[in-house]
Amino acid sequence: MRNMLSKLQIACDNAVFGCSAVVRLDNLMSHLSDCEHNPKRPVTCEQGCGLEMPKDELPNHNCIKHLRSVVQQQQTRIAELEKTSAEHKHQLAEQKRDIQLLKAYMRAIRSVNPNLQNLEETIEYNEILE
Predict the structure, then answer these.
(1) Which InterPro entries does the protein's record reference (predicted)?
(2) What is the C-alpha end-to-end distance of the chain, expressed in Å?
(3) Measured at the alpha carbon of residue 24, what is the angle toward residues 18 and 25, in degrees to the nearest 5?
C-alpha cells in the first residue's frame, strides 16, 4: 500500500500560486522546498540590503527601514559594550590601587620584620610570571 501511495502522481501544493508541476508523492516534499512558486521560500533582497525573507514578503520590503533597524540594533549593542568596558576599566583601576596598597603594607611589615622579605620576593616573582 505504501509503495502504491508513494508512486501516486500529485499536483504541487503551490498550484494556486502558478506551479504546474505534477510529482510523485514521495518527491513532493523535496519539490516543495525548491518550488519557485512557494510563497514562503526564502529569497534574498536584491535591492541592496541582502536580507533573506519569505518570497511573499518581498513586495512590501523596505531596505531603508530594515537597514535603519540594523543600525539601531548595532548602536544599542555598541553602547552596551562601551558601558561594560568602562565598568571593567573602573574595576581594573580599583584592583591596581588595591595591589599598590597591599605592596605598601608588605613593605611596612617587612621593615618591621626582616624575615618576611622572602615572602615579598616570592610575591613579586609570581607577579612577573603572571
Answers:
(1) NRDP1 (IPR015036), Znf_RING/FYVE/PHD (IPR013083), Znf_SIAH (IPR013010)
(2) 72
(3) 95
